Amino acid sequence: MKSNWQTKRLEEICELFADGDWIEKKDQSKGGIRLIQTGNIGNGHFLNRAGKARYISEETFKRLRCAEVLPGDCLLSRLPDPVGRASLIPKTGHKMITAVDCTIMRFKKDTLPEWFIYYSLSQGYQNEINKEVTGATRQRISRSNLGNIKIPVPPVSEQQQLVNILDAVFERTATAKENAEKNLQSAHELFESYLQSVFENGNCEVKKLSELFDVQSSRRVHKADWKTEGIPFYRAREVVKLARNGFVNNELFISQELFNEFTKDKGAPKKNDIIISAVGTLGECYLVREEDRFYIKDASVLWFSKISNVDSAYIEYSFKSQIVQSQVMNKSMGATVGTLTISRAKNIEIPIPPLKEQQAIVNKLDLLSAETKKLESIYQQKLTDLEELRKSILQKAFNGDLAGACS
To answer: Which run of H or E residues covers position 359?
Structure first.
């Protein structure tokens, strides 16, 4: 910290430092004075969420003696995530108040609100907040502890210089981040476009899944039989992870003896069989590899065992297509948790070209998928680097080390 900077308590730099009001559901109305909640407080920015806005009447405002929040005030959330995040309040077109878990900070003239918002994004600030956080299940910080948080305060002229520098840096990194995200989206869209075009080809013969595979589930694995080691068994949630990541850190097992008993008649999923999630997140599809050895949990996972000359990898890709996914959704049952039954899965229709064409499509999709993942890795690294750059700049700014820009 530079020699001409002061260390002050957070409450000390505010002319108003107060919690919002306790507003119960019975106090709310369809319109009137807008209630700003912790969900509106982003990490350094305001989240309008006008469609979910809550209100109280003018009469309730007077009855409860509410504190009005003004445009330009800073609201700080005393709840996660993270505790202590802050944003400036814009004009919303309404008179405003805030909830009790938000602290209203109206700064004195020697503190710029924009400067504090940048400081609230720094690791140094978050470290100080974390020292005062309490709560085992839901973390929070009390207003009194928040008010005692010590922060470095430069002269106003240096605050303005820092704001100008950080505005420029954050604008450039935001643009770079937006470009990286667009490029990442374009890579995904290229893969998706080819994938959809393959399965929308009207020249293919259409077959039901039951003509291609024996569709079945497994015997139920009771919770009493769950082990911490042995043969892995997968529920729908594990299959979703397998389908999306190619691996899963499984924590559920059955004994070798039970595995032998359950598989003595039908066996277990083997190479080139397919398993899909059939409860909750439906139709996530995994092609069984040669080295896989596992069991599946009852009807929450469906198991397709080949009975025809079809390329299983082609079927795996088909389950990523709109033409198959729409059937999965249309054939699912359940008002709250979707379920795909064996009988309904058997009737899913899939376009089936000749085997050689299936294999050529799989090769093309494999290459395109690998290239997409490569690009995704590159762009994700760029996004990570940009975030690290922002953190580095913030650290330098609030250590007083921004290359002598504020002298």
So the answer is: helix 355-399
What's the pLDDT band for 204 if we cut at 50, 70, 90? Answer: confident
Using alpha carbons, select from 368, 384, 386 the residue that is nearest to residue 187.
368
Question: How wide is the angle at C-alpha 192 spanned by C-alphas 189 and 193, nearest 5°?
Answer: 80
User: In sequence order, what are the beta bridge partners of 231?
Assistant: 254
Q: Which value, in Å, is the radius of gyration of the alpha carbons in the chain?
A: 29
Task: Number of helices (H) and strands (E) in the chain: give both, helices first.
Answer: 12, 19
pLDDT in tens, 313-336: 999 999 999 999 999 998 887 666
What is d(CA 160, CA 125) in angstroms, rounded to the nearest whole number? 19
Bridge partners for 6 per DSSP: 153
Instruction: Grade residue 230 by pLDDT with cuts at 50, 70 and 90.
Output: very high
pLDDT at 142 exceeding the cut of 80: yes
DSSP 145-161: HHHT-EEEE--HHHHHH
What whole-number distance in Å separates Cα of residue 274 and Cα of residue 303? 6
pLDDT at residue 200, as a whole number: 83
Confidence (pTM) = 0.70
Q: How many CA atoms lie within 13 A of 150 on its CB side?
A: 5
User: Residues 276, 284: contact at Cβ < 8 Å?
Assistant: yes
Beta-carbon contacts of residue 194 (< 8 Å; ≥ 6 apart)? 364, 365, 368
CA distance 139 to 142: 10
27 versus 81: the higher-pLDDT residue is 27
